[in-house]
Structures are given as structure tokens and as C-alpha cells.
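Sanity check

After download, print the first record. It should look like this:
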Amino acid sequence: MITNGFKFGGKALATRESINNVVEITKTYRPEIIIISAVGGVTTQLEVFANGYLSGDRNMMKGSLQRIHELHEPIFEANGEMPEEAKQYFDILTKLSNGHSRFYNLVGIVQDAIQSMGEKISSLLLSSILSKNSFTNELVLPSFIRTDANFGNANVIREEFLEELRGSKLVSLIQKGKSPVIPGYIAWCSVEDDGFIDALEAQTTLGREGSDYTSGLILRGLKEIGAVEEAELTLWKDKDGVGDKDPELGLPVQFYQNMTYQQLREAVAYGKYAEGLVHPKTVDEVEAGQIILRIKNFWHPELPGTLIS
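Expected C-alpha cells:
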């Protein structure tokens, strides 16, 4: 039996029309696992906010917070309301922009704690929207992904990750046939703070395009611990698949229907159209786990996209 994982990027959550497509795609194909990025543009604004917090620039923080609200308006409208849990994240950002300090005086922890909010908010909202559209799901934070303390681009500690994954809520939900909705990009680690805090469970982030990486990491991990037999990952993008050039150049594009992992890796490495479409770490995970990878267009789900195996 093949376990299907769907990963929706930020552009898929950026407008009412794209969100409606995500709902229809999910209801039609009924994936077992869903991984979510932050709404398009939000991660960049959270980086600006974090820099403003660390430099004491409240105007920078307030400006980025206003933009974060604006970027979330379509998904707020699609949901009909802001869930209470999402309000809590916005309340934290508002308090920080007003000069209230609640975070530990550790630069890396501050930055990742702030930047992880984008995926948390988007996954909360999409989970709520899917529930209102009769798709049974449950939000699961990926605290089972364990990393070192290299904040901003943390490295997964594989043995700890697999151990945590075995006893995770994620595995329990899959066994019950209930689809988990998981925020990508974020992970957890234990850090020491020179006696200020004896031990702290801190959130880390996996670097840019970390949500795609999260998707491959989880599906490979599930195969390795025997929780699933086979797995397939679909990355829903705003492109028709992997092509021989960027369509934004205005030139005719040939989209590949089939590729090998090695062909995809070369396309990413040598700056072809796959550059920016798939992160190299994602390719590493799906290839190592022998996971079928599809790249499809959320605007045109009827198109075949590109199949990588």
C-alpha cells in the first residue's frame, strides 16, 4: 500500500482561489499526510520582524507585522475567522512590537521562534478550513524532528528523529486512517544556556525551502521505522512540473513527464528550471528512501506534472 504525502507551498495559500484549489485537491485525492509551508511572503516578513526585534527597531517590526496580517487576509477569509491558537501567535508578535520581551536573551532561539510562526499559523488555518469542508484531519506539530542547535539551518539528528517518530502522534493517526496536517520547516532541539536555563526545548528551523525537506524527511522516516510500506510525495507548485527552462522567460518550455532522481539532481545543481523548484535536501531524502516524487501544479491538477523515480 502506498502512503501519499501532499506538500502545499506558500503560493498555494496566497489567494482565495488557490486555497479553494487546495481544498478541492485534498478532497479529491485524499492524501494520508499533508505538509504546509507558510503563506507566501510571510517567512521573509518574519525575518524582517526578527531583525527588527534584535536591533530594537519597533517601526520595522510594526511595518512587517502589518504586512503579515495583509498576507494572511485571504486565508482568514477562507476560514471565516482566525482560530484562537492563531490569535495567540499574532498576540505574541504584537507584544514584541510594543517592546514586551518574553523570549530568552538568545539570538538564535529568538529568530527561529519568530520565524516558525508562519508555518504554525498557515497549518492551523488550513486544518480548520479542511475540517469545515468535511475532510477529517488533525494538526500535528513536528516535535519528533530532532536537530542540533544550528538555528536558522539546523541539522537533523537522525537517530533521535527516528526514535521520537516511532512513538509520535503522527504514526498513531496514520494507523487510525486520520490525515495529519503538519507545519513544515520547523523542528525541535535541546539547548543549554550557561545556567540561565538548565535545559530548554527550543524550536529550530531547517533553512529556506525547509518545508519540502520536511516532507521528504518524514516519509523516508516512516518507511525506515516500518510505519508505512511505500510512499509517494507530491509537491504542489505553481508550475506544470520540471521543464527545460523558466517559463517566465517567455520562451517555449518543454515539461518533462518522467525523470530519474539523478536527472532531477543535475537539473537542480546546474541551474536548470528545477533550481528553486526542489531543494537538494529533498532530493536526497526521496532518493535515499526510494520515494516516488511528483511535482504538480495546484492551478491545474488535471495535468500530469513530472514523475521522479
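If your output differs, re-run the checksum step. Summary of this record's structure: Confidence is low (pLDDT under 50) at residues 193-199.
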